Amino acid sequence: MLEDGQFIYEDGEIDFHEISLALKVSETKVRNLIYEVELKYRDNHNELISIIEKGKYEVTDNKVKFAVHNPLVKQYFEYEIRKLNGVSDGSFAKHIVTISTVTFEKLLLMLYGNRNSADEIISQLPVQLKEQINDKTSLF
Questions:
Q1: Do residues 47 and 70 lie in contact, with contact meaning Cβ atoms separated by under 8 Å?
Q2: What does the alpha-carbon distance between residue 110 and residue 108 come to, in Å, rounded to a whole number?
Q3: What is the pTM of this model?
């Protein structure tokens, strides 16, 4: 049901209510089943890369704010930030995660695994953020 997109809005959000009506089970049951499936089978690494490549973030001062609507992807994202000795702030809203530009740079290099791919993403960033990303070679 999730694969064919029948119960997914245009913005990628799942319509739990419609699924519950179709299956004649509660929305809570649907949410729990989908959570279990995503936990077992979803590739959060690629989801995180997709968020970055689609530009689902906003740059203000020396902070980068991401809109991560999937709780599992958000959990994976925050875990990756902790592995990089970075700090994430999710206190503004439950789907917003804020990190520093330095941590963002480390995240790009970790996700893409090589400097050329990270440089390509960095080249598409706003000028103010590019100016704050100085020494990419020190992260290797």
A1: yes
A2: 5
A3: 0.63
Strand, coil or helix: what is 67? strand
C-alpha span between 109 and 98 (Å, rounded): 18
Q: Helix 71-83 vs helix 101-112: angle between axes, to the nearest 10 degrees?
A: 100
Per-residue pLDDT tens over the stretch 48-59: 888 888 878 888
Tell me the residue type at 124: Q
Residues 70 and 50: their CA atoms lie apart, in Å, by: 13
* φ, ψ (nearest 5 deg) of residue 78: -65, -35
Strand (E) or helix (H) holding 11: none
> How far lies 87's CA from each of 36, 49, 95, 99, 102, in Å?
28, 19, 16, 6, 10
User: For residue 115, what are its two tokens?
Assistant: 């400097």
Mean pLDDT over the full length of the chain: 79
Confidence of residue 98 (pLDDT cuts 50, 70, 90): very high
Sheet of 57-60, strands arranged across: 57-60, 63-67, 96-100
* Residue 85 DSSP one-character state: T
